[in-house]
Design goal:
alpha/beta; 7-stranded mixed β-sheet; 8 helices; about 30% strand
Length: about 220
Amino acid sequence: MQLRLSPRLGDKPSFLKKQIDYFKRDNIKWYGLDASKEMLEIAKKRLEKVALTYGYAEEMPYQSGMFDFISNNYAFHHYKNKSQALDEIYRVLIEGGIFKLHNIAIHEMQKWWLYHYFPTAYYEDLKRFWNIEVIFNELTSRDFEVDVQIEYQMTNIKVADYLHYVLNKDISVLNLINDKDYEEGLERIQFDIKKNPEKTIVNDFAELFCIAKKL
């Protein structure tokens, strides 16, 4: 049985749907856990054959040893008590079960375009994201066999292509910085685009991929 942990299952259910379609010939029971009842209602309309449950990763409403695979994508930084969430993940996994963690690696991407225009966002993210060493040590201390890697890239990006992420506040940390910092960052990015619609900046981006096997 496979479980996906997400803070916004209803907002972006495409990953889970693709997994279900890809493994449709296999006898897999799919579960999804979300802390938003509204998102769950949306997900129920978009996903079939998935047992969707309201709850928190820190206190999962599942029996011990229930899952052989848990997928956690772009959600771990949202948990208020990450240590307790890992305890729960360990509890509900079977022996030999796999926990897959995928997230951005903010400690390796200080030149990210978002931090360029909203520097205080980086310090907000430092409060929420564990670095690679902490993740490795926390999982290892819970008797997981851990393989964690970071994929990094540096490119030039066209600033105008990213304005809509700011206007819609699609990136969660934009909702955490104060209004003054947000407005100043928005003004800077709009000024740069108005001055030169083709303006580019150096941008780095890093993703963390972790596979942890319960021993």
